[in-house]
Inverse folding.
């Protein structure tokens, strides 16, 4: 990024002098120079022109002097460095400026060699501070998210464990109940063989309970109970798959299992509500090998992207008489670069170019206040790129939905 330098001075020849001296650097795009006539003008420039790295300001100016501007800059952005220009020997103002956080001072008339050295030192320090802030912010974000996922993982694992115990009892007893019923049925058949003419009371009871239908229905009843317990077992397994906490080392993982567990967790959100029909899921799975990865973290990526697609349907003002909300998930091996690709597409409202370029930025969100944190996609990119050496990209146009592409090395 080209460093931006804002020069503040109320003397008109000052701008022309500076531009002439730095003309080569400006043409080579080694720096971008902005100019302001006083402190108020400078504050406007800081607001409009985006991130500025360095401010070089005169002290004595109309409307707002350099010392007041120095204070305002510190509040506006503490990473901006400020160099003050003063008349030779104006030690009182220089001392005040340094006490207010000035990076350095230069005397007028300007020694351009000193100016270039000072600019170089200041820009280097700004770059170091901002890089360290970015690293700290990324570490804090990852720590917060790791703690959240750890807590969620413990909760889900605990729920899965509590489900497993009673389901284990039920599953074990179903088989025994099936044996008991079969033995009772055999006993009834023996009675019917040796005592074909029951008493009137027994005959009435047989008619009342529709004994033949009851005997025929028993196997179906047992089968239905077994199917129910199998579904609960699958749910428990999916919960454990989703909440995997292998954060210290990569493991060989079936990505399809991760996607399936995520869809199961989000099943309640896929159901129709408030005029929006049920979201259809289309799966186009390729033949993927096991992938060495942090499984729990990748499940988090799947969760963020699919949940965002559902949010887009809920908040996109779509005409559901013409559009069936659909999420398509496809996977394939990409031999050319020895990787796998997971594509998650939706037919929602899509994004403008401006939004698409910002969606992975820290704290950027298009959702209403209170419903989005601006962390989901930022953390997802960190997980894919930094943790796995992969790539996370997005293709989208307004009115044409969005496709997120996760590429992971094999």
């Amino acid at each position: 990024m080209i460093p931006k330098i804002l020069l503040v001075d109320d003397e008109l020849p000052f701008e022309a002098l500076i531009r002439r001296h730095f003309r080569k650097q400006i043409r080579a795009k080694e720096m971008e120079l902005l100019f302001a006539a006083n402190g108020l003008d400078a504050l406007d420039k800081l607001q409009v022109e985006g991130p500025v790295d360095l401010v070089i300001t005169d002290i004595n100016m109309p409307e707002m002097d350099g010392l007041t501007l120095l204070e305002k800059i510190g509040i506006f952005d503490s990473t901006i460095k400020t160099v003050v220009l003063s008349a030779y020997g104006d030690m009182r103002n220089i001392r005040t400026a340094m006490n207010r956080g000035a990076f350095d001072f230069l005397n007028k008339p300007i020694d351009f060699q000193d100016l270039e050295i000072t600019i170089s030192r200041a820009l280097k320090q700004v770059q170091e501070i901002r890089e360290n802030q970015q690293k700290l912010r990324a570490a804090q974000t990852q720590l917060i998210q790791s703690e959240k996922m750890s807590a969620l993982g413990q909760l889900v694992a605990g729920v899965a464990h509590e489900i497993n115990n009673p389901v284990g009892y039920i599953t074990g007893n179903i088989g025994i109940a099936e044996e008991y019923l079969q033995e009772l049925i055999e006993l009834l058949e023996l009675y019917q063989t040796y005592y074909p003419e029951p008493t009137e009371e027994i005959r009435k009871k047989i008619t009342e309970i529709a004994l033949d239908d009851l005997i025929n229905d028993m196997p179906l009843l047992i089968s239905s109970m077994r199917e129910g317990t199998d579904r609960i077992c699958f749910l428990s397994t999916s919960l454990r798959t989703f909440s995997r906490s292998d954060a210290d080392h990569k493991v060989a993982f079936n990505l399809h299992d991760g996607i399936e567990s995520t869809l199961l967790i989000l099943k309640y959100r896929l159901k129709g509500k408030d005029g929006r029909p049920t979201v259809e899921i289309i799966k186009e799975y390729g033949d993927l090998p096991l992938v060495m990865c942090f499984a729990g973290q990748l499940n988090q990526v799947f969760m963020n992207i699919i949940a965002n697609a559902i949010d887009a349907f809920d908040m996109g003002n779509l005409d559901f008489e013409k559009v069936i909300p659909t999420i398509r998930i496809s996977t394939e091996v990409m031999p050319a670069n020895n990787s796998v690709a997971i594509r998650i597409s939706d037919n929602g409202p899509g994004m403008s170019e401006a939004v698409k370029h910002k969606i992975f930025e820290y704290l950027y969100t298009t959702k209403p206040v209170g419903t989005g944190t601006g962390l989901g996609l930022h953390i997802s990119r960190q997980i894919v790129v930094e943790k796995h050496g992969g790539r996370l990209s997005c293709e989208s146009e307004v009115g044409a939905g969005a496709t997120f592409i996760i590429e992971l090395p094999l």
Q: What stands out?
A: The domain at 4-110 is CATH 3.40.50.2300 (Rossmann fold). The chain has a mean pLDDT of 83.
